[in-house]
Every structure is written in C-alpha cells, then in structure tokens.
Design a protein that fits this description.
- This is Polysaccharide biosynthesis/export family protein.
- The protein has about 260 residues and is of the alpha+beta class.
- The chain has 3 domains: about 45 residues, no CATH class; about 110 residues, Outer membrane lipoprotein wza domain like (Outer membrane lipoprotein wza fold like, Roll), CATH 3.10.560; about 90 residues, wza like fold (2-Layer Sandwich).
- Helices cover about 30% and strands about 20% of the residues.
- It is built from 6 helices and 10 strands, in the order H-E-H-E-E-E-H-E-E-E-H-E-E-E-H-H.
- The strands form 3 sheets. It has a 5-stranded mixed sheet with strand order 7-6-10-8-9, with no helix packed on it. A 3-stranded antiparallel sheet has the order 2-1-5, sandwiched between helices. The protein has a two-stranded antiparallel sheet with strand order 3-4.
- Strand 8 and strand 9 form a beta hairpin.
- Helix 1 packs antiparallel against helix 6.
- The longest helix has 24 residues.
- It is elongated and about 100 Å long.
C-alpha cells in the first residue's frame, strides 16, 4: 500500500511540473515594473537596404506618359495571375552581382542601397540619357511585398508575403496563425540575411522591451523559428487540469493492472 502511495505522489509531482507556467504564455509583459503604466517607445525602423534576390517594383512617370511605356510593366492586364506572380514577372530581380536590368537604361547596381537612393539613381540616369528636366520625371521604387518564412512551433509554417512597407514581429506571427502554448515565446530566433552572410538573432516576445529591439520589425527574407518547449516532447498537458486528467487516467490504469496482477 505504501508503494502505491509513493508511486502516486511521484507521478502527480512529475505531471504538475510538466505544465506550462502562465507567464510563459503571455506576450509583452512588463518585467521591470510592478505596473504596466510606463509607455514603451518603439524602436525606430532603419531604412531597408536592397539584397540579392529582392524583387523591385519600379514605376516611371513623365509629362508624356507614352514615352515611358517601355519602362513600365504591363502585367496588370493578366487577371489570372496572382499578385506574387505579377510581381515576379513584372518586377526587377536583383541578380547575384547586385544589379537590375532596366529597358533602355541597361544594368543598374542597387545592392545595399535604399529605395530612395535607387529612385534618385534611376531619375539621374533618365535625365542624362533619355529626357530633359521639362519632362517632369517621377520615379517610385518599392519592394514587391515583404516576404518571410516561419518555421517550428507556429500555427502556419512556410513562406509568407505581406504587401506592406513594414511589418513587426507580432504582425508576422499573427499572419502565421500565432504561437501555440507549446512554443517558446521567450527565445524566438530571427535568421536574417546580410551582405556577408546570415546571422541569428534572439528575441523575447514575453518582454515588453522587445519593442526596443532592432529586430522588432522584420525584413524581407527573414526566417522566424519558434522552438518547441520541452513540455511538448513529454507529451503531457499544458495546464494543471490537463495534467491531473492525464494523471487520473494513468493511475486508473496502474490500479487496474495491480489488482489483476494480485489476482493471478
């Protein structure tokens, strides 16, 4: 009888320890203050610099618009194409050398430049080779959506594209189905591309100070990896009630097995 009681105590303790603490499930906790009345200033996003394989959407407008038809894509007429497909075929992809090729203007090096700088480079090249100041040239350069990839313990895995100028980490996660209770919100990895290679950055989404982080806003081609908590590998419940239910089932099975064994 004592052995049975001992087994029950150990089993309940193990199952209760395996539940996920409430504080590990909450986003944006104020861990430095007793209250959450303090305002948090969001980290200012730095201008994005174009990378290899980025796709740029370039539009050129002048007084006589017929003179720039060769520069502007015409794929909008294909109603069967998705936004992503139109962006791929109509946009200007940055090649392995960091260049794009524009009709009549030829190659233009854009690697490492912001879209504002690229707009100026295109306008200057047009004025030098194609038009005069009186043409009133207006150039816009945008990324064709913000593309990122989600992996690990998250609702929806895979590549996503959001057609916004900027996206923060919470918007990216929300668009991917959120992080379940079994995902580690305290140590989310952001794998980011740089000219010299990839780097891994760690962010704690349970801390309100994540909004101060330089990685609060994601960048094109980021990979977001959410590690599973050890509780998932144990296969128990995520709350104490779920664990007690599991414990009751196991205890019932053990009791039945012991009674049957004693009758043999």
């Amino acid at each position: 009888m004592k052995n049975r009681f001992f087994i029950v105590v150990i089993l309940i303790n193990v199952l209760l320890m395996s539940c996920i603490p409430h504080k590990d499930r909450l986003y944006l906790q104020n861990k430095q203050q007793a209250t959450d009345s303090e305002q948090v200033v969001v980290e200012q996003q730095k201008p994005y610099r174009v990378q290899i394989n980025d796709i740029l959407n370039i539009r050129i407008k002048v007084t006589d618009q017929e003179n720039v038809q060769i520069f502007n894509p015409i794929g909008e007429g294909n109603l069967n194409a998705t936004a992503g497909e139109r962006a791929y075929f109509d946009g200007f992809t940055v090649d392995l050398h960091g260049d794009i090729r524009i009709p009549e203007l030829g190659k233009l090096h854009v690697l490492g430049y912001t879209t504002d700088v690229i707009e100026k480079k295109i306008k200057d090249k047009l004025l030098a080779e194609q038009f005069k100041e009186t043409a009133n040239i207006f150039v816009t350069v945008k990324l064709t959506g913000l593309r990122f990839t989600t992996l690990g313990e998250i609702g929806s895995k895979g590549m996503k594209t959001l057609y916004q100028d900027r996206v923060n980490i919470f918007e990216a996660i929300a668009s991917s189905g959120d992080i379940p209770d079994t995902g580690n919100k305290k140590d989310v990895l952001i794998i980011r591309q740089y000219p010299q290679g990839q780097k891994i950055h760690h962010v704690d989404l349970t801390d309100v100070n994540v909004m101060h982080s330089p990685y609060y806003y994601i960048q094109p081609n980021d990979m977001i990896y959410v590690k599973p908590l050890k509780q998932k590998a144990w296969g128990t419940g995520t709350t104490a009630i779920q664990n007690i239910t599991t414990a009751a089932s196991i205890l019932s099975l053990l009791t039945t097995s012991i009674l049957l064994f004693n009758r043999i």
